[in-house]
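Translate sequence into structure tokens.
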Amino acid sequence: MMLTTENRTRSLRPLLCLALAGLLAWAIPATASLPAPAPVPAPLLYVRFVTPFGGQVTVYAGAPAGRRFDVPVTVGLRPGYIYRVQLDRLPDRPGLALYPSLEVRGTLCLPATLRPADYPAPIPISDQDIALCLAGGVITKVIYLEDPAHALAVATQPNQPLETTLRPGADPADEARAFGRPMLIVRLGARTFSPDEMAHQSIPGTILLPGDAGLGAPAVRPCLPWAGVQLYDPILGPRHCDDECLHDGGDSGAPAGLDQEGHLHGLDPSDTVAEYTDNHGQKHLAISNRVCLCVPRFAILAVPLAPAGTVSSLAPARAETVLAQELLRVKQAEIELRQAEKLVTLRGRERASGMESTIGALPLLQSQGQAVVMGVLHEEVVIGTLEKKVCPPPERPLVLCKTADKQGVQVGEVVTFTLQFTNSGGQPITGVVVSDSLTGRLEYVPGSAQTDRPAIFTTQDNEAGSRILRWEIGGRLLPGESGVVRFQARVR
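Result follows.
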């Protein structure tokens, strides 16, 4: 009985599956650590009520009676719901009560080692906001997670985010999408609510109050869209949330390089590079790795709407007017108008799709540096050997590695960065110059620069509103030798 190609392929499939299972068991030891899972949206968005004058906040969590807390206070809210709280007992305004509404539109995406409760979204209520409400006005605030690539080089505090006022009639949610990810919409006016109305609007299982051990399932489904449910490419998967992370190091933007005279160009903010000269007198450039700091920073876009007054119109009792008819003709020569405008900005967060092609080739055994492989290619069984390819040593041997002493950071904290440069080649190198251009979210701490080798340290301003740090390392760097430079930066 002769087997056809299709029959041979089918008969070999069980064998190939067993070989693949054995190969995976052999290739991945039991003690091997798997990569950390990708961050997923947190089930709750933690918010923090902040006022400069104190007061109390009453929260109704699905019960007939509300619970009071002194300001400032942090609570957890499920995304996709609308909440209403009561703010009263203000020291300067006794008897005044305000009832802001909260629309939760998103949550943070943090690594598993960090707690979302440590990064609450602040809800500041100022004297100007209260005065506007007492005058009959309404204010809308969109609290968004700031995109580090578009962040302003302004120092802020966790409870004092950067707040920008827009003109009346503007859409703050649409404007916030250009600078980050909207998380919360707060509306504040002069309307009052009774305790029964507050209790009726609350939904059980949606608010985690201080002191509660856990939160049950919500009584009703969400009524608002939120970032936890997103559409994504079926091949590339969901888009990774990077607004929570502050990236530093590497070479972003225009590629860094050396011109014919050996001068460095293309050093953009957040880039970290090192120049050096090999034993032939040629200058080269080494690029560091990128480090990620999880430091969410919130910002606010506010639109105040104040009453401008009243307008009344009285119609005249009777009016008679006779106007003579006139004919007016104007003849004007055609004028050609041309205008060329440069592109102001380009917004977009789309990624290209991908193509995947898989050819089955499975190594079954290995001996004397060769591996026997078996697979199916175009419905044909392929059997052969593979030889291990020896990679040549790198032509540019300087390796630059950047690390940070923290992964999760709060706004205002100080981070220590370490830059280690190593000669991985077989010949000495000279003229090592390490340059680090800080992003606008990082502020260099004066006097914190250190090095374990003789060096000349200088700084200068960059276009992001921060500094460029530069170390000119003296002497030769022998094969296998390393050097270290350190500095501190405060997170804005």
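Note: The chain has three domains: 5-26+360-387, 43-228, 245-295+393-491.
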